[in-house]
Amino acid sequence: MNHSVLGLHHVTATVDAAQSDLDFFRGTLGLRLVKKTVNFDNHDVYHFYYGTEIGAPGTIWTTFPYGGRGVPAGRHGAGQIGATSFSVPEGSLGFWADRLRDRGLPATSALGRFGDDAIAVRDPSGLVIELVASHRDARAPWSGGGVDPAHAIRGVHSVTLVESSPDLTVALMTTRLNFTVVAEMPGRIRLAVGRDQPGALMELVIDPRAPTGRNGLGTVHHVAMAIAEGGEQRRLREDLLDHGLHVTDVLDRQYFESIYFREPGGVLFEVATMKPGFLVDEARSALGLALKLPPWEEPNRAAIERSLVPVTDR
User: Fold this and answer.
1) If we measure between CA atoms, which residue out of 41, 39, 40 comes closest to residue 18?
2) How confident is the model at residue 110, as a pLDDT?
3) pLDDT the model gives residue 313
């Protein structure tokens, strides 16, 4: 039974230094920092949420900066997100290639993405970030990030899963998670929720020889899909449990509720609700300016602030 997954919600990575992460995703890519909070499972580490104006589901990229905390570099490989792609307007890749080169970050041409042109670059932690040019993305960009709206990022385009074998993953996604296979090419499968639109896409790269990936600095921790509300999320959870998957309880993430499970190839999936969103504790004009803590961490605010590495706007 398929459930009402609506598309992508966010992508979360384990990264190195907090300041270099901010400088790249906010300063170079021009994304808005929509929330500065802490990792709810380790409150001594930031959790940065980047997106467009209000961090709408499908535009959100989030990071845990674990640099200096004894976390080793991860290993890229199977059972992992190999690349995260952001959607930019058709005709803007020249602008982005120049912008990245001027900042000492030369981009390379990414292999064809089913007719879409793309470039790839490594972020300061070693993550593969792609910019995919698309004429099919009507989402409004963030206009306050120092990038002309004619070129600015519209949101997450897709994620690429590295799989040693795709069959069980495709079966789960097409029978339980509302995806369909919309395109195939040698070694790559594209799945989408609804039509083939940015923000609702996952691609599988099949590489039987890939080493098993290991989470650490410079790797994607998980990808989240959006679901409308908690009742549908709980029905999905029960269905996944009935089919033998290990699924967490529903967890309160302050800005959405989440469940987590690993797909058959090993990638950590999250399903997150659309609401309440990032305006629940900050005004639109103030998003990302202050350190926001969930109510249960407020008694620890002084200790948390002392433990976090100071960061600045640049």
Assistant:
1) 39
2) 87
3) 73
Task: Encode pLDDT of 127-181 as tens digits.
Answer: 999 999 999 999 999 999 999 999 999 999 999 999 999 999 999 999 999 999 9
CATH 3.10.180.10 fits 5-307, yes or no: yes
The list of the chain residues with pLDDT below 50 reads none
Nearest CA to 269 out of 260, 281, 278 is that of: 260
Q: Which burial class, exposed, middle or buried, applies to 267 when counting CB atoms under 10 A from its CB (0-12, 13-18, 19+)?
A: buried
What residues are paired with 236 via a beta bridge?
none
By three-state DSSP, how is residue 250 classified?
coil
Report yes or no: 107 and 121 within 8 Å, Cβ to Cβ: yes
What does the alpha-carbon distance between residue 132 and residue 87 come to, in Å, rounded to a whole number? 5
For residue 116, what is the DSSP state? B
| Cβ neighbour number for residue 285 with a 10 Å cutoff | 6
